[in-house]
Amino acid sequence: MTSDVNAVEPSAHEGSSEESNRCGYVAIVGRPNVGKSTLLNHLIGQKLSITSRRPQTTRHQVLGIRTEQGVQTVFVDTPGMHKVQKKAINRYMNKAATSALTGIDAVVFVVDRLTWNEEDDLVLEKVKGARCPVILAINKVDKISDKAKLMPHLETLSGKMDFHAVIPISAQHGHNLKELDDLITHLIPEGIHHFPEDQLTDRSSRFLAAELVREKVMRQLGDELPYEITVEIEEFKHEVRPKGPLLTISALILVERAGQKAIVIGDRGTRLKQIGQDARKDMEQMFDSKVMLHLWVKVKAGWSDDERALKSLGYDHS
Question: Which of 24, 179, 270, 279 has its CA 20 to 30 A from that of 259?
């Protein structure tokens, strides 16, 4: 994976002209755990957004930028829209998802197999106000045991609004992704490129490093730990050495209670060690550098329902 992932200010791409180039924003939306981040990663051809089987893994808007053959597609990965907003972090995630529907050129509305529930209705009402073409993508169709049920379901969903297209896909296994990509590409308008051709995301390397650690925590712990954990990068130092580049990264895993800290660390530190090994491996691939990763776990009570704490940890739309 390319190491050029640092954020830069959007700028008109030199030498671009509206006649020869196209550029557009495409929001990927849906309720939690329908596979939005997996879809983004496959559409841009690289791992960018973190994934796990836990709902609400994605917490922020993340831009995935792909520039090919004069077409720059800026995908906006979003947190899952959900009805329950008990804590400040839930309200933040819903705001991040909803704000992605402003100023875009197309929407990919992702749903899960044969399921449609109240949260899908919530997303539907939001995308109806997007004022741009909406593609409905029925994901994880490879997991449908009785394929005869799919066609009637597609017909039912087609009646919910005037979708630009309704398409069954498997983001994980690539089923119909080229067809989906072609639909998206045809909706990208003429215009100058907003980002350099080799830029992958608007997010910084520090942000991506924190997300990789959080992904490994969630994958390691499964249902043992509430999702109210976050990761703060305290050190991100790059060195050029004769043997090759070295990144030294120090990350703080924040939990809300002492019992959660013990779970993350594990017996004699075994879990924390495994989290570090898995995260370091992905970091070395992402940043194309040897990585020295240091992890600590700290209790920060109530951070997920504290507006000021959330802002200090990077959860801020203002």
Answer: 279
* CA neighbor of 110 nearest in space, from 33, 173, 201: 33
Rounded Cα gap, residues 250 and 236, in angstroms: 7
Q: Is residue 100's pLDDT more than 60? A: yes
Task: Look at the alpha carbons of 82, 86, 89, 92 in this order and tell me if their dihedral is positive or negative.
Answer: positive
CA distance 257 to 83: 26
Give SS3 for 271.
Answer: helix
- Cα–Cα distance, 14 to 37 (Å, whole number): 30
- Closest by CA to 73, choosing from 22, 107, 38, 30, is 22
Taking only the tens place, the pLDDT of each residue in 121-168 is 999 999 998 889 999 999 999 999 898 999 999 999 999 999 999 999
pTM of the model: 0.85
3-state secondary structure of 170: strand
Q: Under a CB-based contact definition with an 8 Å cutoff, are residues 5 and 201 in contact? A: yes
DSSP 235: E
Of 185, 300, 202, 203, give the one whose Cα is nearest residue 252: 300
Closest CA to 287 of 244, 252, 256: 244
Domains and CATH numbers, the chain: 22-185 (3.40.50.300), 205-312 (3.30.300.20)
